UniProtKB/TrEMBL annotation:
Transferase in keyword set: yes
Entry annotated with the keyword Cell inner membrane: no
Pfam families in the record: DegT_DnrJ_EryC1
Protein name, entry field: Pyridoxal phosphate-dependent aminotransferase EpsN
InterPro entries, per database record: DegT/StrS_aminotransferase, PyrdxlP-dep_Trfase, PyrdxlP-dep_Trfase_major, PyrdxlP-dep_Trfase_small
EC number: 2.6.1.-
Taxonomic lineage from the root: Bacteria, Bacillati, Bacillota, Bacilli, Bacillales
Stored Gene3D superfamilies: Aspartate Aminotransferase, domain 1 (3.90.1150.10), Type I PLP-dependent aspartate aminotransferase-like (Major domain) (3.40.640.10)
Any one GO MF annotation of this record: transaminase activity
UniProt organism field: Lederbergia wuyishanensis
Keywords from the UniProt entry: Aminotransferase, Pyridoxal phosphate, Transferase
Family of the protein in this entry: Belongs to the DegT/DnrJ/EryC1 family.
Length: 395
């Protein structure tokens, strides 16, 4: 007999509406505010700034656009160097290329999977020796886990280089009591469809530097000079968020804390059920931090478990379960061929190992118990089959 539920795909991180989105969209339509500006945009920016405890925020069309604006504000231009976490989505580094600048990639460390302070230190030492420091450092908080910001800030402050905190995946997370994305000169967030809250597509740039955010507003609206006609003195962009989408964002922001709790609960259940399996190790949560657990991720030691990450993902695919490899490090991407890269320690690559052994599990805040149990059982079966193959029960 066929169980229809079995064929329904369990997705990695689908959008999860709160139910209030329609009210905000309706209001935008009723008041004819369909423009890429309007009361919902203003409201969304204020509510985000309040939630995070920063002085100002600008809503933009994507997280990528927010990073691009941050680099523009820091006057990163052709030939400049920018340090960037290597274990991340390509969007973290693409804006470096938009500016004609040169990315230098920094490895992860094992306790947070994020930027290694020791690799960063080495990169700064070399840069100082060569007489050319980076213009900015882009630090990513992977899958909701904050990087070791205290150590990273200390190094960057010593060289007087500003940090752009890529908090696209860590909205709602905390680092030593402060909201993720508020520790650098700039923080950026994404509201892409797969993120913890979404506007279908969108982003936010935040900072305590009110003047800089004011300038970002100017740059993001084609850098239109204050003149009675269309006059432009510098290069701008069309990066503002529409008032309709900002309405969706306001409704989503209202349930953000609930979503963090759901994601953490999903993680706990996976941990409870799977952490005892041979060779399985979940992404750690650094002391003094709170992760939103955007995606539950773990590594598999194929010698202990008898199965590789690629084989596990295939086993999930066969069962209509969407699991993914951990991000492929950017220094291994053909796009960044030839870019400089600093490993965690000499001959010790953390990001490459995480890529080879890491898996992201379905973690949508709207996943139900039955679906999550399907994921759990599938992994248990896949590993049991392998361990029985390598250690056959004889009797
Ligand atoms: C999603 C994401 C971005 C970019 O966000 P978009 O809104 O899709 O442009 C940037 N950095 C990281 C780490 C992300 O996961």
């Amino acid at each position: 007999m066929k169980n229809p539920v079995k064929n329904e795909k369990v997705l990695l991180s689908p959008p999860h509406l709160s139910g209030n989105e329609w009210k905000f969209i309706q209001e935008a339509i009723d008041t004819n505010w369909i423009a890429p500006l309007g009361p919902h945009v203003d409201g969304f920016e204020k509510e985000m700034a309040n939630y995070l405890g920063v002085k100002d925020a600008i809503a933009v069309s994507s997280g990528t656009a927010a990073i691009h604006l941050a680099l523009s504000l820091l006057e990163v231009s052709s030939g400049d160097i920018v340090f960037c976490s290597t274990l991340t989505f390509v969007a973290s580094a693409n804006p470096i290329l938009y500016q004609g600048a040169i990315p230098v990639f920094i490895d992860s460390e094992p306790e947070t999977w994020n930027m290694s302070p020791s690799a960063l230190e080495k990169a700064f030492c070399d840069a100082a020796l060569s007489g050319k420091l980076p213009k900015a450092v882009i630090v990513v908080n992977l899958y909701g886990q904050s990087a070791k910001m205290q150590e990273i800030l200390a190094i960057c402050n010593r060289y007087n280089v500003p940090i752009i905190e890529d908090a696209a995946e860590s909205l709602g997370s905390e680092y030593q009591g402060r909201k993720s994305g508020t520790l650098g000169e700039f923080g950026i967030f994404s509201f892409n469809g797969n993120k913890i809250v979404t506007t279908s597509g969108g982003g936010m740039l935040v900072s305590d530097n009110v003047e800089a955010i004011q300038k970002a507003r100017f740059l993001a609206t084609q850098a239109k000079d204050p003149a009675p006609y269309y006059q432009h003195s510098i290069l701008g962009y069309n990066y503002r968020m529409s008032n309709v989408l900002a309405g969706i964002g306001r409704a989503q922001l209202q349930v953000l804390d609930e979503r963090v709790l759901s994601k953490r609960k999903i993680f706990s259940k996976y941990y409870e059920e799977l952490s005892e399996l041979p060779g399985i190790q979940f992404m750690p949560e650094l002391e003094g931090t709170l992760s939103n657990r955007w995606l539950t991720t773990f590594t598999v030691d194929s010698i202990k478990s008898g199965i590789s990450a690629a084989e596990i993902i295939q086993a999930f695919t066969d069962k209509h379960i969407e699991a993914r490899h951990v991000w492929k490090p950017l220094h291994l991407q053909p796009l960044f061929n030839g870019a400089k890269y600093y490993p965690h320690q000499e001959y010790k690559n953390i990001s490459e190992k995480l890529f080879k052994t890491g898996i992201c599990l379905p973690s949508g805040s709207n996943i139900n118990d039955q679906e999550q149990m399907r994921v759990i059982e599938s992994l248990k079966i896949a590993i049991r089959q392998r361990t029985e193959m390598t250690h056959p029960i004889t009797g």
